[in-house]
Amino acid sequence: MRGHKTGKRTAAVILLCLLALLVSGCGDKASAYDKALELFADGEYADAAAAFSKLGDYLQAETYAAYAQGLTYYEQGGYTEAEPYFEQTRDFMYGDQRYRFCHAYVLQETGAFAQAAQWYEELGEFEDAVYAAAYCRARAAMESEDYETALIAYDEAEGYLDSEALLDALNFEIYEHAIAYMDAKDYEQAFVLFTLLGDRYDATEYARTCKNYMLEDAYDAAEQMIDDGDLQGAYDQFSALAGYRDAAARADELAVRLGIDITQE
After folding, report:
1. What is the pLDDT of residues 75-116, one digit of tens each?
2. Which backbone phi and psi does 185 adopt, to 5 degrees?
3. Total domains, the chain
4. What DSSP assignment string belongs to 1-67?
5. 133 lies in which domain range?
6. Do 156 and 108 lie in a common domain?
7. Residue 171 domain-assigned?
């Protein structure tokens, strides 16, 4: 009987030791978890990621580990590397916004500027999304030679990445195209491009010159219509040119020949 009691006492002692070890282990994990949280709160994301990774599936350690690793890359501008970590944690903290920002960046890096702009726009004012969206709109517009949209978008990008350098390059490219159109006597296209440049270079003076050439060409075209017997066409043309040379007077002369009562106009 005595041996039986001794056996029971031994089993109880062993059980108590196991419980103590279990409690101690849980206590160690709780302490490590708290320390990892402190690292995370202090912005020590790389150390936090390593600390959480050692805790396995304890509480939210796996989620924190992935999110902290994503933030480590994100803070360094490594959006491509950060994307998969935020994809795993889209329902945690700012995981969804950061995932979408990273995905937009990946699209941007692959040259899918129109798609990237859409992803950035959907983020509203999150991080630099507004400026990134403008940048991508400008790059997309450049691909389709939509210079006006590109100029506006680069300006809205407010220095995002190399937007300022690209804006300067675009202005000069537009200027060269405008000069080429002018040399080819395509004054209308040249005028449009010079107008886009505003007061850059000598664009204002060139735009004025192109407009004068356009008016002169229109005046000559009206004269030719008279020679061709198209008096109505000439009248409409001269009327549209009112204010240039004697176009208004020529329109009045044609009105008389056409029987148009200009006093009613």
Report:
1. 999 999 999 999 999 999 999 999 999 999 999 999 999 999
2. 65, 25
3. 3
4. -HHHHHHHHHHHHHHHHHHHHHHHHHHHHHHHHHHHHHHHHTT-HHHHHHHHHTTTTSTTHHHHHHH
5. 99-161
6. yes
7. no
